[in-house]
Amino acid sequence: MNSKDFISISDLTAGDIKRLISSALDMKAMGWSTMLNEKVLALLFEKPSLRHRTSFEVAMRQLGGQCIYLSPAEVGLGKRESVADVARVLSGYTDCIAIRTFSQETLETFAGYSRVPVINALSDLEHPCQALADLMTIYEKKGELEGLTLAFIGDGNNVANSLLLGSALSGINFRFASPAGYEIKENMLNTAREYAGESGAEIMCTDDPREAVTQADIVYTDVWISMGQEAEAEKRRKAFAGYQVNNELMSLAREDAIFMHDLPAHRGEEVTDDVIDGAASVVFEQSENKMHLLKALLLDILGGLEISLPGNL
Hints:
Layout: H1 14-30, E1 40-45, H2 50-62, E2 66-70, H3 72-75, H4 83-91, E3 96-100, H5 104-113, E4 118-122, H6 128-142, E5 149-153, H7 158-170, E6 173-177, H8 186-199, E7 203-206, H9 209-213, E8 218-221, H10 233-239, H11 247-250, E9 258-261, H12 273-276, H13 283-302
Parallel strand pairs: 1-2, 1-3, 3-4, 5-6, 5-8, 6-7, 8-9
Helix pairs in contact: 1-6, 1-13, 2-13, 4-5, 6-7, 6-13, 7-8
């Protein structure tokens, strides 16, 4: 990585992504180790998470390190104490800090004052750790990244942003289908197009989910209503009513297509039970892979072992 902070997928090169996936696959096979013995990771979460908290804590534990969870009530980030002061305090106690926050601005301010590496565990703009775990899962299932086609059906949210950038860097064709008003922002698309110009990936945006899914290798969706958007729930349900991933939509994808979702899923809204529980679904392997990917990321950031790339990645 060019910087030890991991704020955006854009902090990585295509080579970095390949190296981290390679390392994560090795970590998955290796199991427990002591490579981060005497290292401490702080988890500073403004938003709750089943998967991200557990995967970070277990990843650090399996590497021999320690993890401290700090809840919103304990810290009051930007309320009880300024973001800058919290960053400077935690820098004196820990070796790395992962932040899950509502605002990208909070994350960037924190990283600016921190003396130790900062990881984006989710912001309103990006979800880069999730995207890396997704790319790892795609490679594990498909044996390649370049030339595949991924169809993302739903909201142009933080998950879509990071997956778009990661796909463009990795040579994955990215198709995005959403209703009007919920598209990926133009500045994000412009960055992705620059990456795609180098990798050869193709980017398509449409309001037709059938067009996006036709002959796709991967079909991906996310919730229509994220945390903090509850007041818009009914409006969003109406807007996304034609964007549910069901068996009819999946039948348009390639015969060996996989279905992905970053979870939690609102079953019966963005996805039906028969898809998320069906043979094409890899969502629970995708969830587990987050822990293995985080082990690779933490090793890279905190100076673990250098793991060689396999010849076919």
